[in-house]
């Protein structure tokens, strides 16, 4: 790890190609190369946030390059770039979940510390006596279990059942003694905390224990510490990127609605257009909901499951079939319009022929 850190430091000071000969052709940087850190290109690398803290993630094994990061930011959104963003969000969600569990455990510990103990604490002599009784009960239970097993082997079922019932009573007595000992321990802890007259609380950002009403200097030191700032930066980046993604989805939905309105206006509201629009809106809504669900699932569970892949394939197949049906409906509508036009032409020609025949008959009658 020390060698890797030294190599990264030299890369920052002298450049990536510090060992390249002057006559060698230098390869142009490409953000898709696996040697570059995906998290650093998207936003920042979490490994740099908790250096020399309890949450230290170690040195990042990938290369952090500002030039490659600029190339990544200038590139238009693509499938691979979207994958990088998803991996960054998934990693942030994982770390936030870990610290949330730590915060929950800390709160439970404080609640247990502040709860009123059952009875006064035991003295040293009482504690030793309690431990001796627990040890004797354990030996008796082990002996009775062995006797019950031997009785069962001999076929004496009644004796075995009686020994097991006696074992159950001894186990209950042992559990009561252990509970008294545990209550005494928490009583002493609570008395010690009350003697110190310091109430504790859990930091809602990083999960550290803080003293209520502590000096402002100590509070400022905690707020400016690496661990607190690191988790705050993680939470802020995750929330901002999620909000941006939701706004982008809403904008796409708005553009789709406008495009559907224009298509419906261009068709003139033909037969079946309203029904097809409603079906398309339902499909778009289901697709957006499925995409949102998959995004949340990936942020919580990790990689997408095979079941989701099958669902996406089936959905794309349904959309393709629906698109083919719509094309076929439009072709049929055009065919019907052409047929109606041909019928009108035939009718018009037939009327002209009838009129011509009547004129000829009237001319013959006059002669």
Automatic annotation (TrEMBL):
Residues 242-367 are annotated as: Disordered. Pfam families: LUC7. One of its GO terms (molecular function) is mRNA binding. Signal peptide: none annotated. InterPro entries: Luc7-rel. One of its GO terms (biological process) is mRNA splice site recognition. One of its GO terms (cellular component) is U1 snRNP. Residues 345-367 have a biased composition (Basic residues). Residues 242-266, 273-344 have a biased composition (Basic and acidic residues). It comes from the Eukaryota. Belongs to the Luc7 family. This is Luc7-like protein 3. It comes from Galleria mellonella. The gene is LOC113511963.
